[in-house]
């Protein structure tokens, strides 16, 4: 399997931007959200020695999309959406389109998504737990988990239970919180109220918490509210749940995952998970992956967890797009 064939959406977006030249790439990046910038930036940093074949694959994918459009369609909303979705996936593309439509501003609550988790903690650590819960609900799940990890451990379970109990926040309250954050950050634009929180939001944040803290939080929630703990568990999706995805879904997922990440993620998993992956690859690719696993040697648990969480994030994105069904408890049957 060549490096070009293993390129995922973020890799292709990174290569495409690098071919545009520095000034043009900068203008494009101004319209990206924090997660897109981080994803593409990480891809850029890992794309040393970009081969001619990798550039050709990226550009041919882009040209193929462009040729399907009529000349009148170029520049239209549908064209922009199609190209960005192909490069970044539906969720990230939608976020980018929204940002472009809003003029690329990021003030108040939105600005927190650009901040280091420790900086977010410094802003909210003396606030009422309900305010902190609202902020955590607003952040992306992985960032929220990092912020939670930097808050006092004794309050973790309480915050997740508050998030799970939350349905929506009144527009006036959201606007007030947004204005306060803007004053602290010296911003200037108005925020927009939206539905926040819920059991699913709490479960997704828990997915990104490290295993030790996750077990302790789950135990505390179970002691306080066993029914809530059970509901959260049903909505959670962990790496071992990959065996619940059908073969077509696994194949779609593997096309989005780099070999290096897959090797790390499979270290320490049981045979059932590994067999699920091997059985959905060509014999040659499966043999190469087995060889890579054997040659990898011991790795840090933290590195394995990071790789698994990145793959789970891709799986959730594909599920949100309707490309795959995650299966398992709480999933909707496909007909």
Remind me, CATH topology of the largest domain? Annexin V, domain 1
**Regions with little confidence, pLDDT below 50 for 5+ residues:** 70-75, 98-106, 187-194, 328-335
State the CATH superfamily name of the largest domain. Flagellar motor switch protein FliG, alpha-alpha superhelical domain
Number of strands: 0
Range of strand content: under 5%
Q: What is the CATH architecture assignment of the largest domain?
A: Orthogonal Bundle
Given the C-alpha coordinates, what overall shape results?
globular
If helices are DSSP runs of H or I spanning 4 or more residues, what is the number of helices?
A: 19
How helical, in percent, are the residues? Answer: 55-70%
Instruction: Note the gap between the termini.
Output: 34 Å
How would you explain this protein's 3D organization?
The protein contains 19 helices and no strands. With 335 residues, it is mainly α. The model is unreliable at 70-75, 98-106, 187-194 and 328-335 (pLDDT under 50). Helix 7 (117-124) packs across helix 9. The protein has helices at 9-20, 22-29, 34-46, 52-67, 77-88, 90-101, 117-124, 129-138, 141-149, 156-165, 171-185, 199-207, 211-224, 226-235, 247-254, 259-266, 271-278, 283-296, 301-320. The two termini are 34 Å apart. The longest helix is centred in the last third of the chain and has 20 residues, at 301-320. The chain has three domains: 4-101, no CATH class; 108-235, Annexin V, domain 1 (Orthogonal Bundle); 240-320, Annexin V, domain 1 (Orthogonal Bundle).
